[in-house]
DNA sequence: ACACGAAGCTTCGTATGCGAAGTATCGTAC
DNA sequence: GTACGATACTTCGCATACGAAGCTTCGTGT
Protein backbone atom coordinates (compact mmCIF):
# COMPACT_ATOMS: atom_id res chain seq x y z
CA UNK A 1 0.00 0.00 0.00
CA UNK A 2 1.51 3.33 -0.96
CA UNK A 3 1.60 6.16 1.59
CA UNK A 4 -1.40 7.90 0.10
CA UNK A 5 -3.54 4.82 0.32
CA UNK A 6 -2.29 4.02 3.80
CA UNK A 7 -3.08 7.47 5.14
CA UNK A 8 -6.51 7.53 3.61
CA UNK A 9 -7.19 4.01 4.83
CA UNK A 10 -6.46 4.97 8.42
CA UNK A 11 -8.45 8.18 8.18
CA UNK A 12 -11.39 6.36 6.67
CA UNK A 13 -11.30 3.71 9.37
CA UNK A 14 -11.06 6.22 12.19
CA UNK A 15 -13.95 8.13 10.71
CA UNK A 16 -15.99 4.98 10.28
CA UNK A 17 -15.25 4.01 13.85
CA UNK A 18 -16.31 7.37 15.16
CA UNK A 19 -19.46 7.12 13.05
CA UNK A 20 -20.22 3.68 14.45
CA UNK A 21 -19.79 4.85 18.02
CA UNK A 22 -21.87 7.89 17.33
CA UNK A 23 -24.50 5.90 15.51
CA UNK A 24 -24.64 3.41 18.30
CA UNK A 25 -25.14 6.14 20.84
CA UNK A 26 -27.76 7.82 18.70
CA UNK A 27 -29.66 4.59 18.27
CA UNK A 28 -29.69 4.03 22.01
CA UNK A 29 -30.92 7.50 22.80
CA UNK A 30 -33.42 7.56 20.00
CA UNK A 31 -35.91 5.71 22.17
CA UNK A 32 -36.13 8.87 24.24
CA UNK A 33 -36.32 11.07 21.15
CA UNK A 34 -32.83 12.39 21.78
CA UNK A 35 -29.95 12.76 19.36
CA UNK A 36 -26.48 11.54 20.31
CA UNK A 37 -25.10 14.83 21.64
CA UNK A 38 -28.37 15.61 23.37
CA UNK A 39 -28.31 12.22 25.06
CA UNK A 40 -24.74 12.77 26.14
CA UNK A 41 -25.66 16.07 27.78
CA UNK A 42 -28.57 14.52 29.66
CA UNK A 43 -26.43 11.54 30.62
CA UNK A 44 -23.75 13.78 32.08
CA UNK A 45 -26.35 15.78 33.99
CA UNK A 46 -28.00 12.65 35.36
CA UNK A 47 -24.65 11.34 36.46
CA UNK A 48 -22.89 14.45 37.68
CA UNK A 49 -25.70 16.83 38.63
CA UNK A 50 -26.04 20.41 37.41
CA UNK A 51 -23.11 21.52 35.25
CA UNK A 52 -21.81 24.78 33.87
CA UNK A 53 -21.84 25.22 30.11
CA UNK A 54 -18.07 25.31 30.11
CA UNK A 55 -17.96 22.02 32.00
CA UNK A 56 -20.31 20.37 29.53
CA UNK A 57 -18.23 21.77 26.73
CA UNK A 58 -15.05 20.35 28.23
CA UNK A 59 -16.58 16.98 29.06
CA UNK A 60 -17.93 16.55 25.57
CA UNK A 61 -14.97 17.99 23.71
CA UNK A 62 -17.19 20.52 21.93
CA UNK A 63 -16.99 24.28 21.69
CA UNK A 64 -19.22 26.35 23.94
CA UNK A 65 -21.12 27.72 21.00
CA UNK A 66 -22.00 24.21 19.88
CA UNK A 67 -23.12 23.19 23.35
CA UNK A 68 -25.16 26.37 23.53
CA UNK A 69 -27.10 25.33 20.44
CA UNK A 70 -27.70 21.82 21.75
CA UNK A 71 -29.03 23.29 24.99
CA UNK A 72 -31.35 25.61 23.08
CA UNK A 73 -33.05 22.61 21.55
CA UNK A 74 -33.13 20.65 24.82
CA UNK A 75 -34.65 23.67 26.53
CA UNK A 76 -37.17 24.10 23.73
CA UNK A 77 -38.30 20.52 24.34
CA UNK A 78 -38.52 21.12 28.08
CA UNK A 79 -35.84 18.60 28.98
CA UNK A 80 -33.32 20.90 30.64
CA UNK A 81 -33.30 24.53 31.75
CA UNK A 82 -30.68 27.20 32.36
CA UNK A 83 -30.28 28.85 35.73
CA UNK A 84 -28.03 31.76 36.50
CA UNK A 85 -25.51 31.03 39.20
CA UNK A 86 -26.07 33.04 42.35
CA UNK A 87 -22.41 33.21 43.24
CA UNK A 88 -21.15 34.22 39.80
CA UNK A 89 -23.43 36.12 37.47
CA UNK A 90 -21.48 34.99 34.44
CA UNK A 91 -22.07 31.31 35.05
CA UNK A 92 -25.05 29.36 33.79
CA UNK A 93 -26.02 26.11 35.50
CA UNK A 94 -27.80 23.52 33.36
CA UNK A 95 -30.32 21.30 35.13
CA UNK A 96 -32.72 18.57 34.12
CA UNK A 97 -36.39 19.49 34.41
CA UNK A 98 -38.36 17.69 37.08
CA UNK A 99 -40.77 16.57 34.42
CA UNK A 100 -38.14 14.81 32.34
CA UNK A 101 -36.49 13.44 35.44
CA UNK A 102 -39.74 11.90 36.57
CA UNK A 103 -40.71 10.49 33.21
CA UNK A 104 -37.37 9.31 31.94
CA UNK A 105 -35.05 8.51 34.77
CA UNK A 106 -35.70 4.84 34.59
CA UNK A 107 -35.56 4.35 30.85
CA UNK A 108 -32.59 6.62 30.68
CA UNK A 109 -30.49 4.79 33.22
CA UNK A 110 -31.41 1.71 31.30
CA UNK A 111 -30.00 3.24 28.15
CA UNK A 112 -26.87 4.28 29.95
CA UNK A 113 -26.44 0.81 31.30
CA UNK A 114 -26.61 -0.68 27.86
CA UNK A 115 -24.16 1.91 26.67
CA UNK A 116 -21.76 0.92 29.43
CA UNK A 117 -21.93 -2.65 28.22
CA UNK A 118 -20.48 -1.85 24.86
CA UNK A 119 -16.93 -2.17 25.99
CA UNK A 120 -17.65 -4.97 28.42
CA UNK A 121 -17.50 -7.25 25.43
CA UNK A 122 -13.78 -6.58 25.24
CA UNK A 123 -11.24 -8.35 27.35
CA UNK A 124 -8.92 -6.22 29.44
CA UNK A 125 -6.10 -7.14 27.13
CA UNK A 126 -8.06 -5.90 24.13
CA UNK A 127 -8.82 -2.65 25.90
CA UNK A 128 -5.12 -2.22 26.55
CA UNK A 129 -4.30 -2.82 22.91
CA UNK A 130 -6.92 -0.32 21.85
CA UNK A 131 -5.68 2.38 24.18
CA UNK A 132 -2.11 1.70 23.12
CA UNK A 133 -2.99 2.03 19.45
CA UNK A 134 -4.88 5.23 20.13
CA UNK A 135 -1.78 6.52 21.89
CA UNK A 136 0.38 5.76 18.88
CA UNK A 137 -2.02 7.40 16.47
CA UNK A 138 -2.40 10.47 18.62
CA UNK A 139 1.37 10.79 18.86
CA UNK A 140 1.77 10.47 15.09
CA UNK A 141 -0.82 13.10 14.38
CA UNK A 142 0.74 15.34 16.99
CA UNK A 143 4.22 14.97 15.54
CA UNK A 144 3.07 15.47 12.00
CA UNK A 145 1.76 18.89 12.86
CA UNK A 146 5.28 20.21 12.62
CA UNK A 147 5.96 19.03 9.10
CA UNK B 1 -12.02 2.66 35.87
CA UNK B 2 -15.71 1.75 35.92
CA UNK B 3 -17.47 0.80 32.68
CA UNK B 4 -19.06 4.20 32.25
CA UNK B 5 -15.75 5.96 32.49
CA UNK B 6 -14.07 3.44 30.27
CA UNK B 7 -16.66 3.76 27.53
CA UNK B 8 -16.62 7.51 27.62
CA UNK B 9 -12.83 7.54 27.69
CA UNK B 10 -12.63 5.52 24.49
CA UNK B 11 -15.33 7.56 22.81
CA UNK B 12 -13.63 10.79 23.76
CA UNK B 13 -10.28 9.56 22.53
CA UNK B 14 -11.67 8.34 19.22
CA UNK B 15 -13.42 11.65 18.74
CA UNK B 16 -10.29 13.57 19.63
CA UNK B 17 -8.30 11.47 17.22
CA UNK B 18 -10.75 12.04 14.42
CA UNK B 19 -10.70 15.76 15.21
CA UNK B 20 -6.90 15.78 15.10
CA UNK B 21 -6.83 14.07 11.76
CA UNK B 22 -9.54 16.31 10.44
CA UNK B 23 -7.89 19.41 11.86
CA UNK B 24 -4.58 18.40 10.41
CA UNK B 25 -6.14 18.00 7.02
CA UNK B 26 -7.99 21.28 7.28
CA UNK B 27 -4.83 23.11 8.29
CA UNK B 28 -3.01 21.71 5.29
CA UNK B 29 -5.72 22.65 2.86
CA UNK B 30 -6.37 26.02 4.38
CA UNK B 31 -3.47 27.45 2.40
CA UNK B 32 -5.62 26.95 -0.67
CA UNK B 33 -8.73 28.33 1.04
CA UNK B 34 -10.28 24.92 1.12
CA UNK B 35 -11.98 23.17 4.02
CA UNK B 36 -11.10 19.57 4.86
CA UNK B 37 -13.87 17.83 2.93
CA UNK B 38 -13.42 20.23 0.01
CA UNK B 39 -9.69 19.48 -0.07
CA UNK B 40 -10.41 15.79 0.01
CA UNK B 41 -12.69 16.07 -3.00
CA UNK B 42 -10.14 18.03 -4.98
CA UNK B 43 -7.39 15.63 -3.87
CA UNK B 44 -9.35 12.66 -5.10
CA UNK B 45 -10.08 14.37 -8.40
CA UNK B 46 -6.43 15.32 -8.92
CA UNK B 47 -5.39 11.79 -8.17
CA UNK B 48 -8.07 9.75 -9.87
CA UNK B 49 -9.46 12.04 -12.57
CA UNK B 50 -13.16 12.86 -13.06
CA UNK B 51 -15.41 10.98 -10.68
CA UNK B 52 -19.12 10.35 -10.31
CA UNK B 53 -20.88 11.79 -7.29
CA UNK B 54 -21.56 8.30 -6.04
CA UNK B 55 -17.88 7.44 -6.34
CA UNK B 56 -16.87 10.51 -4.38
CA UNK B 57 -19.50 9.65 -1.81
CA UNK B 58 -18.18 6.14 -1.46
CA UNK B 59 -14.53 7.19 -1.37
CA UNK B 60 -15.16 9.75 1.33
CA UNK B 61 -17.65 7.72 3.34
CA UNK B 62 -20.24 10.48 3.12
CA UNK B 63 -23.83 10.45 1.94
CA UNK B 64 -24.55 11.70 -1.56
CA UNK B 65 -26.57 14.59 -0.23
CA UNK B 66 -23.59 15.78 1.78
CA UNK B 67 -21.25 15.48 -1.17
CA UNK B 68 -23.76 17.34 -3.28
CA UNK B 69 -23.60 20.29 -0.90
CA UNK B 70 -19.81 20.29 -0.83
CA UNK B 71 -19.79 20.31 -4.62
CA UNK B 72 -22.25 23.23 -4.69
CA UNK B 73 -19.73 25.34 -2.80
CA UNK B 74 -16.77 24.16 -4.83
CA UNK B 75 -18.69 24.96 -7.97
CA UNK B 76 -19.69 28.38 -6.63
CA UNK B 77 -15.97 29.12 -6.11
CA UNK B 78 -15.16 27.93 -9.59
CA UNK B 79 -12.95 25.06 -8.46
CA UNK B 80 -14.86 22.16 -9.94
CA UNK B 81 -17.79 21.77 -12.31
CA UNK B 82 -20.44 19.18 -12.98
CA UNK B 83 -20.82 17.56 -16.37
CA UNK B 84 -23.58 15.24 -17.41
CA UNK B 85 -22.35 11.87 -18.56
CA UNK B 86 -22.98 11.22 -22.24
CA UNK B 87 -23.43 7.51 -21.85
CA UNK B 88 -25.78 7.67 -18.86
CA UNK B 89 -28.01 10.68 -18.38
CA UNK B 90 -28.36 10.01 -14.67
CA UNK B 91 -24.66 10.24 -13.96
CA UNK B 92 -22.83 13.45 -13.13
CA UNK B 93 -19.08 13.65 -13.66
CA UNK B 94 -17.18 16.06 -11.44
CA UNK B 95 -14.10 17.70 -12.91
CA UNK B 96 -11.56 20.27 -11.79
CA UNK B 97 -11.72 23.58 -13.64
CA UNK B 98 -8.78 24.39 -15.87
CA UNK B 99 -8.32 27.58 -13.96
CA UNK B 100 -7.88 25.90 -10.62
CA UNK B 101 -5.76 23.20 -12.15
CA UNK B 102 -3.40 25.74 -13.61
CA UNK B 103 -3.15 27.87 -10.48
CA UNK B 104 -3.07 25.22 -7.83
CA UNK B 105 -1.70 22.01 -9.15
CA UNK B 106 1.76 22.59 -7.76
CA UNK B 107 0.82 23.82 -4.33
CA UNK B 108 -1.81 21.19 -4.09
CA UNK B 109 0.42 18.27 -4.85
CA UNK B 110 2.73 19.75 -2.26
CA UNK B 111 -0.07 19.63 0.27
CA UNK B 112 -0.90 16.09 -0.64
CA UNK B 113 2.70 15.09 -0.31
CA UNK B 114 2.86 16.47 3.21
CA UNK B 115 -0.36 14.73 4.01
CA UNK B 116 1.13 11.45 2.82
CA UNK B 117 4.01 11.94 5.19
CA UNK B 118 1.83 11.88 8.27
CA UNK B 119 1.88 8.15 8.60
CA UNK B 120 5.43 7.80 7.34
CA UNK B 121 6.46 8.64 10.86
CA UNK B 122 5.07 5.31 11.96
CA UNK B 123 6.96 2.06 11.69
CA UNK B 124 5.28 -0.78 9.85
CA UNK B 125 4.83 -2.55 13.15
CA UNK B 126 3.05 0.46 14.60
CA UNK B 127 0.77 0.62 11.60
CA UNK B 128 -0.08 -3.01 12.09
CA UNK B 129 -0.90 -2.45 15.75
CA UNK B 130 -3.09 0.49 14.83
CA UNK B 131 -5.02 -1.41 12.21
CA UNK B 132 -5.39 -4.35 14.60
CA UNK B 133 -6.78 -2.11 17.33
CA UNK B 134 -9.17 -0.50 14.88
CA UNK B 135 -10.32 -3.99 13.94
CA UNK B 136 -11.02 -4.86 17.55
CA UNK B 137 -12.92 -1.66 18.18
CA UNK B 138 -14.96 -2.02 15.03
CA UNK B 139 -15.85 -5.55 15.98
CA UNK B 140 -16.91 -4.49 19.49
CA UNK B 141 -19.11 -1.73 18.21
CA UNK B 142 -20.59 -4.09 15.66
CA UNK B 143 -21.34 -6.78 18.23
CA UNK B 144 -22.78 -4.33 20.71
CA UNK B 145 -25.43 -3.33 18.23
CA UNK B 146 -27.33 -6.44 19.15
CA UNK B 147 -27.56 -5.76 22.89
C1' DA C 1 -15.32 54.59 42.69
C1' DC C 2 -13.71 53.35 38.16
C1' DA C 3 -11.26 51.80 34.24
C1' DC C 4 -10.17 47.65 31.97
C1' DG C 5 -8.69 43.13 30.88
C1' DA C 6 -10.44 38.44 31.62
C1' DA C 7 -13.98 35.00 31.94
C1' DG C 8 -18.48 32.89 30.63
C1' DC C 9 -22.10 32.75 27.38
C1' DT C 10 -24.69 33.87 23.30
C1' DT C 11 -25.26 35.17 18.54
C1' DC C 12 -24.09 35.05 13.77
C1' DG C 13 -22.34 33.22 9.53
C1' DT C 14 -20.85 29.25 7.26
C1' DA C 15 -19.83 24.37 6.39
C1' DT C 16 -20.74 19.77 7.31
C1' DG C 17 -23.69 15.85 7.90
C1' DC C 18 -27.94 12.85 7.53
C1' DG C 19 -32.44 10.87 5.97
C1' DA C 20 -36.68 11.47 3.51
C1' DA C 21 -38.90 13.02 -0.35
C1' DG C 22 -38.68 14.60 -5.05
C1' DT C 23 -36.87 14.46 -10.06
C1' DA C 24 -34.95 12.60 -14.11
C1' DT C 25 -33.12 8.75 -16.55
C1' DC C 26 -32.28 3.89 -17.41
C1' DG C 27 -33.59 -1.10 -17.93
C1' DT C 28 -36.64 -4.41 -18.19
C1' DA C 29 -40.68 -6.90 -18.44
C1' DC C 30 -44.69 -7.21 -20.95
C1' DG D 1 -43.67 1.00 -26.95
C1' DT D 2 -44.99 1.57 -22.47
C1' DA D 3 -45.53 0.85 -17.64
C1' DC D 4 -42.61 0.46 -13.68
C1' DG D 5 -39.06 -0.53 -10.49
C1' DA D 6 -34.27 0.73 -9.89
C1' DT D 7 -30.50 4.05 -10.10
C1' DA D 8 -28.23 8.67 -9.71
C1' DC D 9 -28.77 13.02 -7.97
C1' DT D 10 -30.87 17.08 -5.84
C1' DT D 11 -33.63 19.42 -2.47
C1' DC D 12 -35.36 20.16 2.04
C1' DG D 13 -35.49 20.24 6.99
C1' DC D 14 -32.95 19.53 10.72
C1' DA D 15 -28.95 19.02 14.08
C1' DT D 16 -24.22 19.47 14.73
C1' DA D 17 -19.90 21.97 14.58
C1' DC D 18 -16.62 25.92 14.63
C1' DG D 19 -14.61 30.68 15.05
C1' DA D 20 -15.32 35.53 15.40
C1' DA D 21 -17.71 39.13 17.36
C1' DG D 22 -20.73 40.85 20.97
C1' DC D 23 -22.61 41.16 25.72
C1' DT D 24 -22.49 40.89 30.71
C1' DT D 25 -20.20 40.13 34.86
C1' DC D 26 -16.05 39.57 37.71
C1' DG D 27 -11.42 40.93 39.50
C1' DT D 28 -7.79 43.70 39.82
C1' DG D 29 -5.23 47.64 39.87
C1' DT D 30 -5.22 52.48 40.93
Helix content, binned percent of chain A: over 70%
Name given to the CATH architecture of chain A: Orthogonal Bundle
Which runs of chain A of at least 5 residues are low in confidence (pLDDT < 50)? none
CATH class category name of chain A: Mainly Alpha
Order of helices and strands of chain A: HHEHHEEHH
Could you tell me the number of beta strands of chain A?
Answer: 3
Q: In percent, how much strand structure appears in the residues of chain A?
A: 5-15%
Instruction: Name the CATH superfamily assignment of chain A.
Output: Winged helix-like DNA-binding domain superfamily/Winged helix DNA-binding domain
Major β-sheet profile of chain A: 3 strands, antiparallel
Most extensive interface between two protein chains, with residue counts: A-B, 49 and 49 residues
| Rounded Rg of chain A | 19 Å
Number of domains of chain A: 1
Distance between the first and last residues' Cα of chain A: 22 Å
The DSSP helix count of chain A reads 6
Mean pLDDT across the residues of chain A is 82
Structural class of chain A: mainly alpha
